[in-house]
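SAMPLE LOG
Freezer: B-3
Tube label: C17
Construct: single chain, 317 aa
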Amino acid sequence: MPMSKDAYLSDSWKDGLFTNKVVFCTGGAGTICSAQVRALVYLGANACIVGRNVEKTEKAAQDIATARPSSKVIGIGAVDVRKLESLQDAVDRCVRELGGIDFVIAGAAGNFLASINQLSANAFKSVIDIDVLGSYNTLKATLPYLVESAKKHRVDSKTLKPSAAGTGGRIIFVSATIHYRTMPFQTHVSVAKAGVDALSHSVAIEFGPLGVTSNIIAPGPIASTEGLDRLLPSDSMESYTKSQPLGRFGSVRDIADATVYIFANTGSYVSGQTLVVDGASWRMSAGGAAYGKLSYPDFLLSGDAVPNVKGQKSSKL
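STRUCTURE (predicted):
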């Protein structure tokens, strides 16, 4: 259903900022990524979002399109980011129907709570494949179009003006802050996101000379998202909220605004960076999974298995 603009975008940005631009986003039906794309569409972009679930992805695309009359938003389901050919087909359709790709958001990710004792090799590999290999495949499939867009919008070093209207040739990898200090029951995600971060830094160095910028957005605890519901036990919600430096969770609007900042002219000289949007949460000593009944180190020493938390999917991984 249509969302109020205030829910996903602040009033700081000029209308039409991304007119005639195209964004390609993996994991685009997710709570955070859909808000990122919705903000760009409101500001003039057209979009292509991809995901595993066909119905969910197509519905999300239709919903995002309500952000701006006459916008074009394509939802492509049954896309497995672990397979380059699957992504390539989606990219080809995006370019064919929308005319190119100026911005990319690599947002597909997998997560669940598990101690190392519970974590099978297959489960570990699954998260690595989705996050790291999926991000790399997203890059490989879209890179020719990012380079093309970057060349078209190259900023002149003397006048600081782009050679074409607007911006282009920019990629954002959606990461996390978990691996900065590590967190119990999140070994698989910590390793995966560290790999994603390294990938983004390498892209910035190798393709910067061609005008492509590569950056990371690392969200902290964001309210009303699938990730928070899955990873933060309900019995610890109140105490965890109080522990936050700003006394609250973030919102999807915070992440969307950060995305606009990087993709707009404001981000023309920002590359190889990590933009942490977490209200200083990661600088606190304890992570979300260490609260409530999963209190650290008592729960680990008990030898018990991590119980189901809200939103956790049953799995044989």
